[in-house]
Amino acid sequence: MPDLIDIPPVYLPYESQEPFKECLVCGCDLTSGNKDYFVEKAIKNHVEYGVKDVVFEYAMCTDCAETMQKSMSQESQQNMQNYFLEHQGFMTKIQKYQMGEGESVDEILSKCSISNESTERMEEYMIFGHFRGDKMVASTMPYIIGGAAMDEISELLSNQTLGEMNDFMGQYFGGPTELKDLWKGKPVFF
Ligand SMILES: [Zn+2]
Fold first, then answer.
1. Which pTM was predicted?
2. Which has fewest Cβ within 10 Å: 42, 96, 106, 175?
3. Cα–Cα distance for residue pair 52/46, rounded to 1 Å
4. Distance separating alpha carbons of residues 39 and 72, to the nearest angstrom
């Protein structure tokens, strides 16, 4: 598998449909490819109408992601790590992917990476991926966390961590809206 592949359209900003240009937090330039970044999107899926809303979306450079991760409480970090370790299927999927024997990106993006529930049937889910400039870094497996798994993860996070996630939302995505309210108490980043 090549190291870099074309960015699946689902990871492009909803409005411009061009790769993210800067880090949400530090504002550094992401277009040159000098610094890798992650994209996270939260999707609300109106299953009965076949319509999807992007609740929020952003790109974060690897430096800011690291800082963010370190700021998470030890308890939350440990609980989250255990959660993923307990989900053997997810860990195996990642290992296979890294060895080049995993599912195709399209296949991965069609279902929750934890529960395998189809994205078409989930009312909400989050997608994550690793990018460099206008390419996706193919050695890191992209993944999707569905609503049910998100709820399980939220329960493992300390109040301190959940509070910080809410602050993060408030700071970068403005005041509450109906959609964003739905997302209250759910994990924002990993
Ligand atoms: Zn940054």
1. 0.90
2. 175
3. 6
4. 19
